Batch of 2 targets.
Target 1
Amino acid sequence: MFDYRSAFETAIEQVKGEGRYRVFADLKRRRGQFPQAVRRREDGSEQDVVVWCSNDYLGMGQHPVVLDAMKAAVDEAGAGAGGTRNISGTTRYHVDLERELAEWHGKEAALLFTSGYVGNEATLSTLQKILPGLIVFSDALNHASMIAGIRQGGGERHVFRHNDLNHLESLLAAAPADAPKLIAFESVYSMDGDIADLKGTIALAKKYGAMTYLDEVHAVGLYGERGAGIAERDGVLGQIDIIECTLGKAIGVMGGYIAADAAVCDAIRSWASGFIFTTSLPPALTAGALASVRHLKANPDLRTRHQERAAALKARFQAKGIRVMETSTSHIVPVFVGDPVHCKMVSDMLLEEFGIYVQPINYPTVPRGTERLRFTPSPDHTDAMMDALVEAMDQLWTRCNVARMPAVA
Ligand SMILES: *Cc1c(COP(=O)(O)O)cnc(C)c1O
C-alpha cells in the first residue's frame, strides 16, 4: 500500500534541507498597546515582545474607531454574512464599503473579495476569459497571487525585468498591435521597498493600447493626500484601469478589493468563480474596514508620522554601518544579511534575548544570497523601541560577524 505518511515527511524534509522550513511565532497582540504583543513559547512560557514586522502598518487593527465599528456591527447584524454575495450574503455593510472604496480611488465602482490574494487571483484569471487572446505583461517581482491568477488564466504572458520600462516596451512592441494587452504590476514592492514608475508605465500602456492593473496592497492607506496610494500621490488615479488592494494591511482588518470602471467590476462580479462561489466577508469586517478607510482618508498626519519613523530607523541603522537595502524608497526597511543561516540566527537571537520580533526573509520569498530582515516601523514605534532595536542589532552584527557598510554620520 502507498505510504502516505512518509511522502508527507519527505516533503517536509526537503523544505528543511533547503533551509526554508518556516516556524511561526505564536503571538497575542495587546489591544491598545500596538506594537507590543505576548509570545507563547513551545513549552507554554510567555514573553513580552515588540513586533517589528507587522503589515498592520499604521496600527489600525487596534484603533478604537475600527474596534467600535466592528463591535457595533456584531451587535446589530451578528457574526457571519450567511451566504455568498448572490445568495443572501450582500449586506448593507458590503454595499456601503464598496461605495466608499470606489470614491476613495476615484473610480465608478469597487468589488470586494475575501482577501487580496483571492482578489488578484480571481480578477487576473477572469480578465483572460473576458478578453480572449489577452496578452499579459507581468513584472518579474509580482506577488504570488498575481502570478497564480495570470497562470490560471492560461493565456499568453510575458515577464518583464523588475521595474524595467525599456524591457517592458520591447515586449509590448513585439506583440500584435491590435491584440488586447494588460500590464500587471505593483506600486510598492514589499521586499525591496522600491516603487514603480506609474507615469512611465501608463505612457507605455497608452502608446501600445494596453490596460493597466496595479496592485497597491503595500501603498493603500499610506501614500497620497487622502491615503489612496501611490496612484493618488503621483496624480494618476484616473489613468490606472484596475487598482487592487487589501483590507488586511494598512487598513488593519481583512479582505481585498478592486476599484475600476463600473463595467469592469460588473463583468468580474459576473464571471469570477473566486468572487461568486464563496461566502462573503462578515459584516463586522466590512464595517471595521469602512471605519478604518474613513479615518485614513481624513488623517494625513498618520502618514507623515509613518514616513518619519521609517526614515528615522533607516538613519539609525546606517549610523551603525548596518546595511539598509538601497532599493527602498518607501516605508519598508529591509536590512541586508545575505545568508540564510545568519538571517535566521539573528532573528532567533533578537527574539529570545531581546524580545524583538522580526521574521527572517529567506528564499524563495527573495533570491538566494539576498536574505534579509524586513522591518516595518509604524507611527507607534517609539524612539525608545528604536534605541533598543538598533543596540541589539549592533551587538548581534558583531557577535555573528555580519558584514557592515561604512557608517553614515
Ligand atoms: C499580502 C499581499 C497580497 C494579498 O493580500 P491579502 O489580503 O493578504 O490576501 C497581494 N499582493 C501583495 C503584493 C501582497 O503583499
Target 2
Amino acid sequence: MDHASTTAVRPEAVEAMTPFFYEKFGNPSSVYGYAMENKQALEQARAVLAESIHAKPEEIYFTSGGTEADNWALKGIAESCFKKGNHIITTKIEHHAILHTCNYLEQHGFKITYLGVDEMGLIRLEDLKAAIRSDTILISVMAANNEIGTLQPIKEIGKIAKEHGIYFHTDAVQAYPTQEIRVDELSVDLLSVSSHKINGPKGIGFLYIRTGVKIPPYIHGGAQEKNMRAGTENVPAIIGFAKAAELAMKTRKERTKKEKALRELMIDLVLKEIPYTRLNGSRKYRLPGNVNFSFQFVEGESVLIMLDMKNICVSTGSACAASSPEPSHVLKAIGLPDELAYGSLRLTLGEENTEEEVRYVVEQLKEIVGEMRKKMPGYERIRDYQQENNSLNQSGYQ
Ligand SMILES: *Cc1c(COP(=O)(O)O)cnc(C)c1O
C-alpha cells in the first residue's frame, strides 16, 4: 500500500526491455546498421511518451527520473532567464526535488515565493496572481501532491502564467499515471515525469520542454538528446518506460475507477471504525489511490512499524523524507498541529490491490491504533476532554 513510493515493473515492460541488454546492445550513436535499429527503437519510445501527454516527440528529453527533470527545469530556466529576473514562484508542498533545488537557487541569488495552501492542500489563484512581479521568470506548481494526493488547478495556473508571459513548470510525476495530460490545454512549458511510478523501470524519466522555451543543456558531453543531455542513452530503461506508459494509458480509465473505489472504501471504513481519525487533504480533488490519515494519540512511525511486522507496507510522509525527524512539510502547510502531523499515515493503492486487502489493512490498523492508545498515559482523560470540546474535525474536509 505504498504505490506513491514506487511500483513493480510490468512483465510486458520487462519483456520489451530484455532484447536490448544483449541481442540489441548497440550504442544508438553508432553509425552501422546494427546500432541504427536501437536508434529507431529509442525514437519510437520517445514518440509513444510524447503522445501520452499530447506533445511532439522532439519536446521530450530523457533524464534519470523525476528528480533530474525537476532540477533541470528550475536551474535551467533560472540560468537562461537571469537577465530578465531572478524571481520564482512555487508552493510550500512541493516534492523535495523542487524545494531543495529552490533552496540551492536562493543561495545563488534567486528570490523564491513559496505559496501557502488551504486546509485541503490547494493553492489560491489570487495568491498566485498577487505574487507575480515584473522580475518573475518561472512558476512551478506540482500537478498532484505525493503525500495527500491533492490535484492542483493546473489549467488555471497555466492560463495565469501565459497571460503574464512567465514560464510554467509542473511536476507531474504523481499525476501522470491517472490524470489525462494535454500540454497545450494546460499551457505548461515544462513538465516532469518519472517511469518507476507507472510500473516502469527505475532511473528513467523525462522533461517535456515546449518548442521555443530557452533552456541550457543539463549535462555536457556528447551530442545525445540534441546536445541537451549528454551521455549514452539508457536504451533498455527507455524501452521499458515507453511500454509501461503505453499500457498505463490504455488502462487508465479502469485503473482510476478501481483505485478510487478502493480509496473510498478505505476512507469510509477507517473513519467509521477508528475514532479520533482525520482524513488529510481534499476528498474531491484527490489522486484516485491516495489516502492520508492522522490518528490522534499515536505516532505514525510506530503504526508503520507495527504494520510492517504484518507485512503491510505504508508510509509516513514521503519516502525521501522518512529519515528526517521533522514532521511533514505538507501536513504543516495544510495547518495540522505537530501532534496530528506526527500521527499521520499515507496509504497509496494500486491496481493490484483488492477489496479484501483493504478490509484486512483496516482491521489491522484498528487493532494497532487501539492497542497503542490504551498504552498511552492519560489517553482517556484527554479523549474525554476533547470530546467535550469537540476539538477534532472527525471526517476532515470534503
Ligand atoms: C517520486 C517523485 C519524484 C522523484 O522522481 P524520481 O524518478 O524518483 O527521481 C518527484 N516528484 C514527485 C511528486 C514524486 O512523487
